[in-house]
Design goal:
The complex is a heterodimer of chains A (about 325) and B (about 280). Helix content of chain A is about 80%, strand content about 0%. Chain A is mainly alpha-helical and about 325 residues long. The longest helix of chain A is centred in the N-terminal third of the chain and has 29 residues, at about 1-30. Chain B is mainly alpha-helical and about 280 residues long. The chains are: A mainly alpha (about 325), B mainly alpha (about 280).
Chain lengths: ~325, ~280
């Protein structure tokens, strides 16, 4: 028992360190600049999306090209509910999260039932993204189309350019990381690893691949939806661009792949590195697009398992790992 | 009613021509080229530059098509090499991600250098009356070119030795290698052909209406839908699906409304994947 508690402690250590670093950042670095704070909030939002995407794609190989759309289901669901009725913000958050989870679970259920491969799952979810974007533009009365939607009922200190807003999203991210780690440590994580390594072998060993895929998609989509809903309240204004494919999905893919698919801190590292890059490069949207393209190509050509993995491997080469000597000794 | 259906057929032939370049590359090696729409835009921008330079439209169109074919060959010789070293789903996934990156690079450079870039090829002459419906010369030309290209492609794959070689690689890569066909050479040629087709799409689309620099993503989406519905790897399927979707598009745009139309088209693609993943004419 003692040993297993120590294991849990070690497993949570990276999250504790991350939390500590993220919490002390505002006073030592950007606390007084609204611009930098809003960039940091962006990074936390994308890291949170990334944890959800990492759970779906990184853990169970389902290429969900609809992160933006799922976040939009959460965001618009919450915003429309709160705007149209007099229900409180919390109700909006719950409804947004549950709707995103249901949509994600349904997409995964369809993909699993029709045994679509990675590619067809990607195409179906991409098609869903585009249809959702069109729906937003079409339902003008509810969504305000391209003019966007003002979301009511946000306390000012939690707005996305205040330190309060930053801590809100740090809290969300840390909670997601804990959930992700807990899943990894439980039998669910064991099943994820098995089905990712070899689907057929996992099925033969008695892992219900279909069920675990749907679990991962539902939980991951709930995370993405909750982030999207919270973002809607925090910025006080959403438009189709907030959740569009090229603004959300592409960046999430780059961040998660940069950090390393399936790795706990992958999304956090990816989102942070690119936030710093964004802060340094005050270039136009187009040149940033070119840069992202170059990064996608470089990452997938050079560091297929993420930059973090590559660095760890490089360090291991020079510093012999302790585990090796333990095993031989 | 006739006018709406004719409109749909014109649009559908354009869709078919758009889908055929993507479907060929997919059939040949399992790569869905997500940079396809951006290659179309590249051809249009090259043609625009040449026209602005004072050259004849025909010269500009040919140079545009050649530029598209050239960039496709460059993609094949650089990014696609590591992709083809993989097998099965790994290959498809890596191809998808790398071409997505290429799409951002090409699209980003073009919209950064030519933010207001657009190509419109005006074809002079009064509208012709077909079945009592006046059609602009531009859309007639575009449809004729699409039909001619479709016929040539079918002829090429059905009646020439090289075309048969291509089909053998589509059917069985290892088997084709055993009978002395070099799959990687065949792939380079087909990539070039696909690029040239993208260039032709740019010209025919510009005959019907202006093709702007930001159209890349939308073009890729439509090509993807046509490819999926028609059956991955099937030339005739792409044209059949294109015309079908074109007619559905103009019927529903006319009777229901434009925004529902896009959702109907997307729904058609999703349904095809779910009900008949091989597509209409796929193997």
């Amino acid at each position: 028992m003692d040993l297993s508690w120590r294991r849990v402690g070690w497993a949570l250590l990276p999250i504790v360190v991350t939390a500590a670093v993220l919490v002390i950042l505002p006073p030592v670095w950007f606390g007084d600049s609204p611009y930098t704070t809003s960039l940091a909030v962006q990074a936390m939002v994308f890291a949170s999306y990334g944890v959800g995407f990492n759970l779906i794609f990184g853990s169970t190989n389902q290429l969900f090209l609809c992160v933006g759309a799922l976040a939009g289901v959460g965001g618009y669901g919450a915003a429309i509910l709160v705007n149209e009725t007099s229900l409180p913000m919390a109700a909006g958050l719950v409804v947004g999260t549950v709707s995103a989870a249901l949509v994600g679970g349904l997409l995964s259920w369809i993909a699993v039932r029709r045994s679509l491969g990675i590619i067809f799952t990607g195409i179906v979810t991409l098609v869903f993204s585009l249809a959702f974007a069109n729906l937003l533009l079409g339902q003008r009365d509810l969504t305000g189309a391209e003019n966007g939607l003002v979301v009511e009922g946000v306390p000012d200190r939690l707005a996305d350019d205040h330190v309060g807003g930053y801590y809100l999203f740090v809290g969300l991210l840390i909670a997601f990381l804990v959930v992700f780690r807990a899943l990894q440590l439980s039998h669910v994580g064991w099943a994820f690893r098995a089905l990712r390594d070899d689907e057929v072998a996992a099925e033969l060993a008695g892992v219900d691949v279909a069920r675990y895929r749907i679990y991962a998609a539902t939980i991951g989509s709930a995370m993405i939806g909750l982030t999207g809903a919270l973002l809607a309240f925090s910025t006080g204004f959403i438009s189709p661009a907030t959740y569009s494919f090229d603004r959300v999905d592409v960046r999430v893919l780059v961040f998660v792949a940069f950090g390393g698919l399936g790795m706990l801190l992958g999304p956090v590292i990816g989102a942070s590195v690119f936030a710093i890059l964004d802060e340094q490069l005050t270039t136009s949207f187009e040149t940033r697009e070119v840069l992202y393209g170059v990064f996608i190509i470089a990452i997938f050509l050079g560091f297929r398992r993420g930059v973090v993995y590559a660095v760890v491997k490089l360090v291991r080469r020079f510093v012999p790992a302790r585990r090796v000597s333990d095993a031989t000794g | 009613m006739t006018a709406v259906i004719l409109d749909g057929i014109v649009l559908g032939l354009a869709f078919g021509l758009l889908g055929v370049g993507m479907t060929l590359v997919y059939g040949l090696g399992g790569v869905l080229n997500l940079a396809y729409g951006q290659i179309v835009v590249l051809a249009a921008i090259v043609a625009m530059i040449v026209i602005d330079d004072g050259r004849a439209t025909l010269v500009a169109a040919i140079l545009g098509v050649l530029a598209a074919a050239a960039i496709a060959v460059v993609l094949d010789l650089t990014l696609m090499r590591p992709v083809y070293r993989e097998r099965g789903e790994e290959r498809t996934l890596l191809g998808l991600l790398l071409t997505l990156g290429a799409a951002f690079v090409i699209g980003g450079v073009l919209s950064w250098r030519y933010p207001d870039g657009a190509l419109y090829i005006y074809i002079a002459g009064d509208p012709l009356s077909i079945l009592g419906v006046p059609m602009t010369r531009g859309s007639i030309w575009a449809s004729v070119i699409a039909l001619a290209v479709g016929a040539l492609l079918l002829l090429f794959f059905g009646a020439t030795t090289f075309g048969r070689g291509v089909r053998s690689v589509i059917q069985d890569e290892v088997g084709a290698r055993l009978v002395g066909i070099n799959p990687s050479f065949v792939r380079t040629v087909i990539f070039a052909l696909s690029g040239a087709l993208a260039g032709i799409v740019a010209m025919t689309n510009a005959m019907v209406g202006p093709l702007t620099v930001n159209a890349g993503f939308e073009l890729t989406t439509f090509a993807l839908i046509v490819t999926v519905v028609g059956g991955l790897g099937s030339v005739a399927g792409a044209f059949l699906a294109g015309v079908l979707l074109g007619v559905v598009n103009s019927l529903s745009a006319h009777y229901i409304g434009q925004y529902i139309t896009t959702i109907i088209l997307l729904g058609a693609a999703a349904l095809t994947i779910l009900i008949r993943p091989r597509g209409l004419l796929g193997r």
